[in-house]
Amino acid sequence: MRRLFPHPYLSLTLIVMWFLLVNQWKLGSLVMAIILATIIPLATSAWWPDRPRVKRPFALAAYAILVLWDVIVANFQVARIVLFMPRDRIRSAWITVPLDLTSPEAISLLAGTITMTPGTLTSDMSACGRALLVHALHAPDPDAVRDQIKARYEARLKRIFE
Amino acid sequence: MILPYALLFFLGCLTLAFALNLWRLFSAPTLTDRVVVLDTMTINAIALVVLYGIWAGTGLYLEVAVLFALTSFVGTVAYCKFLLRGNIIE
Amino acid sequence: MTPALDMALDLFLSSILVGGGIFALVGSYGLLRLPRPMQRLHAPTKATTIGVGAALLVSALDLLGQGQVSWQELLITVFLLLTAPVSALFLAKTLILRGEADPDIPDSGTGKPWATLAPERHDS
């Protein structure tokens, strides 16, 4: 069973995705979904040897809602800067965010969150994977942005994954 | 009912957005900027397809939007990999 | 549906559409207005995403009002939320490597250089 389905969650996600794509409930679609859910994890397992460990799935759902809310707030902030702030008063900054997270899934989730939320964009990662390079559109105080990322997102992800 | 007028307003905004994008595409100072513009244009095109689906009153156009959402991102990444590495498939 | 509820839904959907249209326009305007390449990356990744999001929300609710349930809007939203950070990351890496980003990139603080600029590169 473990050999046939190296990533059970990935298989489940693929089945749900296939049904969303087909957009109707038929037995034939279920067969196709199961075939895909078997082949794709097997074919890609060489690049993804470890199983991600999600300790608190409900906390992950709460995190998703928090991020969605932040995405909407982020849009209003960015729109205000783009429309009304004089060009020479926009103070962009590079910010180094040292990471406490170690699992690759958690780090990529954090990088995605940073890109989608208020005025920040993940630009690069250090060669050893212990720090992220973040670009902020308008940050008069870069250290405050770094502390906010660590307290608001990284701490939650650490509780969820580690 | 005012929904058709709101739809027209959104379509007008998108048209203007496409015009601005094209202007930027021709006046972009760097090559990477042009890729950014292309990325923006594909996302706008997805919105255009979805809006036309609402206008036409069917869910059929959503299939087009799904395919576009899936494949447009591959285009951006391929352009970036070409600029980063000089080739796409290694 | 009662006429009052129909009217309220109509108003609600229209206001979402107007807001979404303005955001889509702001995203493209930002591309023209922001002066530096790294800043220009911010406008499309955020403002246009909410423009598409508004269109998708209205499409889902409109079809729901006609009695059809459509899940493909959710699928498109998930794809866009997953792919927007990845393409933004690749674009930022390209800007850094080609030297078009702001040059005052700080040290990574870990003793190793940033992956894009490292002699032995890890960006594939």
- Which whole number gives the mean pLDDT of chain B? 86
| Number of helical regions of chain B | 3
Order of helices and strands of chain B: HHH
Count of discrete structural domains of chain C: 1
Shape by Cα distribution of chain B = flat
Number of strands of chain B: 0
Describe the structure.
The complex is a heterotrimer of chains A (162), B (90) and C (124). Chain A has 162 residues and is mainly α. Chain A folds into 2 domains: 8-47; 57-161, Alpha-Beta Plaits, CATH 3.30.70. Helix content of chain A is 58%, strand content 11%. In chain A, helix 1 (8-22) crosses helix 2 (27-44) and helix 4 (104-116) crosses helix 5. Chain A starts with 7 loop residues before the first helix and ends with a helix. By secondary structure, chain B is an all-alpha fold. The longest helix of chain B has 26 residues, at 31-56. Chain B has helices at residues 3-27, 31-56, 61-85. By secondary structure, chain C is mainly α. Chain C has one domain. Chain C is built from 3 helices and no strands. Chain C is elongated, with a radius of gyration of 20 Å. Classes of the chains: A mainly alpha (162), B mainly alpha (90), C mainly alpha (124). Chains in contact: A-C, B-C. At the B-C interface, helix 1, helix 2 and helix 3 of B face helix 1, helix 2 and helix 3 of C.
Topology (elements, then pairings):
The complex is a heterotrimer of chains A (162), B (90) and C (124).
Chain A: H1 8-22, H2 27-44, H3 57-84, E1 93-98, H4 104-116, E2 120-125, E3 131-136, H5 142-161
Antiparallel strand pairs in A: 1-3, 2-3
Chain B: H1 3-27, H2 31-56, H3 61-85
Chain C: H1 3-33, H2 37-65, H3 72-97
Helix pairs in contact in C: 1-2, 2-3
